[in-house]
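User: Structure tokens for both sequences below?

Assistant:
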Amino acid sequence: MNLIIVSGLSGSGKSIALHALEDLGYFCIDNLPFGMLRQLTGELQQGSSTDIERVAVSIDSRSREFLKTLTSGLEQLRDAGVTARIVFLEAGTEKLLQRYSETRRRHPLTDEDTPLREGILREREVLTPLADAAERTIDTSVMTPFELRVAIRSFAEGALQSSPTLLFQSFGFKRGAPADADTVFDLRCLPNPYWEKELRDLSGLDQPVIQFLEGSDLVHQMAGQLKSFIDFWIRHFDVVDRSYLTVALGCTGGRHRSVYMVERLAREFRESAGPVQIRHRDLTLVKES
């Protein structure tokens, strides 16, 4: 049985993630107390439920008493033949405050004496064991629901692969570096197409921008050195039981240099590094290969 545990801060998108898994055919349960996991998987492995091989559960801060036994609980699941993987959803405090201001939902750790900001901070502390045990952390601060669904789908499907997916992600530093990246490279030292008026509204996917960047020796040197660096060091990352190795490449706005370099490196690694995916965070464009 494959089990995905979806956890994270309230307001970070756990419901969206669970719905995405349901669409993939997972048997999904929302807000399951952690202490009931072993009982649930045992029931599903018996009797008429033997055809259920993929299960996803959402666990939040209301299971805080059971989270104290997280390590032993996961070991018991493994001993019972259940492959348990944890994906943890994160978001910045200010973004969570904004999201709660736009809804009537109540934060689970607030009451008459606990304001929202304090509840969010307390929840971070409560969920630390799950965050530390997570195979992947996804920062949804600047994600659209569509992007989150794609990320969850890719995470789930990664369980079926024998080698980790190499995910190349472009981003703009003005919106912050992605928190779930394994390694980050800064491309702001390269010539910037933004300052060419005719290229400003285009992206690194457009041929005029590609031609501009490929006219620079610095761009070719950077691409070659990044290829060599990643090709050498990828084998030294701790990728046991992981589905992803995320390489993030950033420029100022996340539209030109980083997008071009992600596309270029992805093409070069597809033949030699197994599964490769592309994500352009600040173009709100996702591509898979």
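Moving on to the next sequence.
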Amino acid sequence: MANISIYDMDRTITRSGTWTPWLLFWARREAPLRLLLAPLLVVALTAYATRLITRGRLKEIGHRLFMGRHVARARLQAAADAFADQTIADNVFAGAIEQIAADRAEGRRLVVATASNEYYVRAIAQKLGFDDVIATPSRWDEDRLHHRLGGENCYGDAKRRLIDAWLARAGAPDGHLRFYSDHISDQPVFELAEATGGEAVAANPSPALRALATARGWRIVVWGEPVKSIFERA
């Protein structure tokens, strides 16, 4: 039986979310004039907060505003690599790094499972020593990244489905899972970890997750104080 540690990323490994910082990083580096479109992103964020659009649609709008319709793969990879360096230097909990190292020392397979976009998450995960990435998929037109998503936004029940699919592909459908996350939206994955005889770990938990973890007897760890977002629910 495989021993697998799965980590959420934003506010679990990192102090803050990474999606908006990525868009701003890209625009400053690659297309500074697109920063003038920031008020339109605020409109889209408000539409999401009031449930007029989905998280997936919000990501597509943000991408279209700040990155354009298409981006060449080589250009994207260079920017993602630079963003990963910045993220690891400025936006990662030391305690998360220590836990990742401890899980690696146990011989566990390390996986990031996050709602953030795969095209920049993969660069961060590789630099942190992860073996695999499960993230919101990208749509590619040959060697050009499209602003539309390539599948489900990896959040809530969809994250559980994507993890189940990954476990089947990896040949580890009965793997012993240890799952770390900060947010109540990951309850389906916490319950999957329990069902495998593994461990649910509430890391830097939101108030709702702390209450659930306390009620369920899940381990709680605090690696630091996450930067909250007014657009994050529960």
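User: Anything stand out in the second?

Assistant: Residues 3-221 form a domain with the Rossmann fold fold (CATH 3.40.50.1000).
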